Amino acid sequence: VHSVVFGGFAASELAARIDDSGAKLVITASCGLEPGRVVAYKPLVDQAIEIARVKPVHCLVLQRPQLQADLVSGRDQDFEMAVARHRGAEVACVPVKATDPLYILYTSGTTGQPKGVVRDNGGHMVALSWSMRNIYGLTPGEVFWTASDIGWVVGHSYIVYAPLIAGVTTLIFEGKPVGTPDAGAFWRIVSEYKVRVLFTAPTAFRAIRREDGEGELLRNYPMPDFRALFLAGERADPETLKWAERMLGVPVIDHWWQTETGWPIAANPLGLGALPVKHGSPTLPMPGYEIMVFDDAGHPIEAGTLGNIVVKLPLPPGCLPTLWEADDRFRSAYLNEFPGYYKTADAGYVDEDGYLFIMSRTDDIINCAGHRLSTGAMEEVCARHPDVAECAVIGVNDPLKGQAPCGFLVLKRHVSRETAAVESEVVAMIRESIGPVAAFKTAITVNRLPKTRSGKILRGTMQKIADGIPWKMPATIDDPAILEEIAEALRRRGFGSLPM
């Protein structure tokens, strides 16, 4: 049973995962490569093992040429030397049950204790094998590139397991969509390796759009074999989808799933025959998922009405059977609130054609003067402004209305106008599109948004900063310095912020 943690994780967080899983072996590279810097991994691992209650027996270290790590005598093993010593040795396979755990993938828990999502063997293989052909439209021998981190569920499922199970060639890329070396990095890889299907997060395409909005770099790389782009991991706003369609000239497919499910809940199944696209919708539920939308009391609500998205039990193959060593926590987190249903903790609606629209996490729904407002709907409007590259909307405390929306705007590189003018135009656009009920009066221009390494915007932390309540540095944050930038921008607008 394995548990992958992305590179550069804080030692205290890594120690918590070593303790919870009871790890006997830690495998690490000596370092990781980021644009412009080398990140030393081994000191973090050494510190984590030192403070962990559970002491792994061995640490296997892959020494990279960019940075050699010091090895602890008796505990640490050099990976290349270990392979050389045992080359040619035969080790028998160990049979396991279909229901035995394959891996644990930890997600951040609200209690501060990580939640270990368990994946089983048999159902996982069935679901991933089916999805490769029927959802992604790939056949054995073709090239699939999932531009993600192996430390996230997308990397587990669609960099490693699904392609290999399906006989599809998979690519692993260490780099960013921009800055390695430029915003044409993705097109270079697709062209050079004859990628048929690319799967990445919407935030990657927002970054590319911000740097190269006219697609000039795209013209440098012929991509005759490329036939589809899939997006997931963060809500895919319609403007980014439309831009990608115009630039690439291939189907751009938004689909929705979670760490807990391990494969898509809703998608447009390219392999079965693509359905008409509705921008902003991940299309229809996939086989095995029966989706309902409930109000907070657990009653089904009519089409087009925002509510809690739930999945009728039993869940299909591939979904989590429980949390690691925490069956009661599994039931309380996912099953108890809506008996007979799995709580996704996402909010959205189903339209009259059965298309699903994911608008935000339920925690991100704003209650403004008794009106339930979706941050996702407001972000859609913000993103329509021609000068806005990406955006985020949060709810902040308001003494009169309870909560009021506050928008953060990242502008495209070429924009030279006064930011105050753009902010005023965005406020007017939301008033016109959603109405005065949204009470959207504050838009703040920032250089960048705080995100996890997988591209999710840290709206919850931003909200705590704005409300002046204590907050903790998220373990999964990509660049901690961005939160201070957000705090300073909020202070300039009169919002309180406390240090973490």
Descriptive notes:
- This protein is α/β, with parallel strands linked by helices and 500 residues long.
- The protein has three domains: 11-86, Alpha-Beta Complex (UDP-galactose 4-epimerase, domain 1), CATH 3.90.25; 101-360, 3-Layer(aba) Sandwich (Rossmann fold); 365-492, ANL, C-terminal domain (GMP Synthetase, Chain A, domain 3).
- The chain contains 13 helices and 23 strands.
- The chain has helices at 11-21, 42-51, 79-86, 122-134, 153-166, 185-192, 202-211, 238-248, 327-334, 375-384, 419-433, 459-466, 481-492; strands at 25-29, 31-34, 37-40, 58-62, 76-78, 101-107, 115-120, 143-146, 169-171, 197-200, 228-231, 252-254, 266-267, 284-285, 291-294, 307-312, 341-350, 356-361, 366-368, 371-373, 388-398, 402-411, 442-445.
- The strands form eight sheets. A five-stranded parallel beta sheet has the order 9-8-10-11-12, with helices on both faces. Strands 15-16-17-18 form a four-stranded antiparallel beta sheet.
- A hairpin with a 3-residue loop joins strand 21 (388-398) and strand 22.
- The longest helix is centred in the last third of the chain and has 15 residues, at 419-433.
- The protein is globular and about 70 Å long.
